[in-house]
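Repro:
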Amino acid sequence: MKAILLAAGKGTRISRKISNIPKSLVDIKGKPLILRTIEMLKHNNIDVSVVLGYKRELFLEILDEVKIYYNPFYSVTNSIASLWFAKDEFSGEEDIIVANADVYWDEEILKTLCNSKEDILMLYDSSRKEEGDYLFYVEDNILKDHGKELLPEKISGEYVGVSIIRKEFQEKFRERLELLVSQEKYDLWWENVLYSFINERNVYVKDIKGLFWGEVDYIEDYYRIVNHLNGFEVKR
């Protein structure tokens, strides 16, 4: 199994609070967030690739034994372009986890992914609705709608930022990724590749309610993660 971590973006919402370093380099109990994720993946025998962009030199100082891709257009593109630079990873030889590098997640969540059987699986958290950033509407573990401004009755939970694409679906995934980029839709998130299949086939999701995770978008998110690791009870 392989994993691709996307770490090219600037993270403008929190950057002023963390000395303008990339979000995935924030210190989490003495270690950059992205290193925590890489070590967890390697501990479980998963090969790791990282797509860099903003301040890549800071990452290169600490990253070791990972494959590096670079999106030189990070300031004018979104994550779909970053994943395009790593498109050759989708060869159909191994299952691939794709994760946003500014997300803290642990081995329990990794086990949920690895033990799944679906050819596509995106994770969401039904305990995070009102405060959620990017929202999912789900029926019978199938994604029906998504967005930042879903109607309240259509909110099932918040997208976690971690997904898995099994090897049997990678050819179609790569074709769609290349199609969207060829259409110059550089402003899309990488997840829009999966969303584009919603009316064609089932895009499966799994609720990880009760498991701790956190995306570092705001300084409050950062403190929430640190407090969790320090053993304090925090709201999920």
